[in-house]
Design goal:
7-stranded antiparallel sheet; alpha+beta; single chain; about 280 residues
């Protein structure tokens, strides 16, 4: 095996070790054997017409962790503690809705349901500084009694009040109210828009989003002819520019290494010739 072939084989081996080792480390960190998820809709976008770094957009790949590996904090809890992720307070969860693709939306507030009394209550709302109230059935009276939530619950999320009539929740049970960040396409709670008929209990949570890899999944959506690609017209150009930049850096590093090697070899030859002449 000549020197160039041996160096190439070593380089391939190093890359393989880095890839395998990186994947193993990611699995260990996230607790998930499939730590990646491609976002196929625009429900989490903050800008309905373009992709943004730091926000979950169509075509992004999201790194997800097992729910047991991370602490899930709702929008309400995050607002009070200052915890935020992907451009807004609280955690983004991926939950199973029984049919279709899992949903990746933000956990807004945990609400408990008392089956014995048929009433709702929330410790998070009792302690929060987030603006909220319940509009009672008379359409006039407002209540902020978190121990007895009734009528239509309104919560201020990102400066906009979002409401849900708790009496209309089809399947009663404790869990998170959830919602997509996109204020245009997802202006209502999932439990009030036909996405799901119940609050998201812990056993329904498949994983938690912990990091974003922008644009990388857009190629798959383009190949599948997804209509959501139109919501992020800058994603494919951004991805191509990123790929060009990475390859440019690699070529530059290789060119610098070759230049240094050639220079050292030339200096070595000149030194030998000088020694012989001397």
């Amino acid at each position: 095996m000549d020197r160039e072939t041996r160096n190439f084989a070593v380089a391939i081996g190093i890359i393989a070790v880095i890839v395998v080792g990186g994947y193993a480390a990611l699995v260990a960190y996230t607790g998930s054997t499939l730590p990646f998820s491609i976002v196929v809709s625009s429900s989490m976008q903050h800008d309905n017409d373009r992709s943004e770094i730091g926000v979950i957009d169509t075509g992004d790949i999201v790194v997800v962790a097992d729910p047991d590996k991370v602490e899930i904090r709702s929008y309400v809890a995050g607002y009070d503690s200052g915890y935020s992720s992907f451009g807004e307070y609280g955690s983004v969860i991926i939950y199973d809705r029984g049919s279709g693709n899992p949903v990746i939306h933000r956990a807004i507030v945990w609400i408990d349901y008392d089956e014995s009394t048929g009433t709702w209550y929330s410790d998070e709302l009792a302690e929060t500084s987030v603006n909220w109230y319940c509009l009672l059935s008379d359409g006039v009276t407002r209540s902020t009694d978190a121990s007895n939530l009734r009528g239509t619950l309104f919560i201020e999320i990102g400066g906009i009040y979002t409401g849900i009539n708790l009496d209309n929740v089809a399947v009663k049970g404790s869990g998170y109210l959830t919602k997509g960040d996109n204020s245009v396409t997802n202006s209502r709670f999932d439990q009030d828009s036909g996405i799901v008929s119940y609050l998201i209990s812990e056993d329904k949570i498949v994983s938690v989003a912990v990091a974003e890899i922008p644009w990388l999944g857009i190629i798959k959506l383009v190949m599948n002819g997804s209509s959501y690609v139109d919501r992020v017209p800058n994603s494919l150009p951004s991805l191509l520019m990123a790929i060009v930049l990475v390859f440019s850096v690699i070529v530059l590093i290789d060119a610098v290494s070759l230049f240094r090697y050639t220079k050292e070899k030339t200096e070595c030859i000149e030194s030998r010739l000088k020694w012989r002449r001397g």
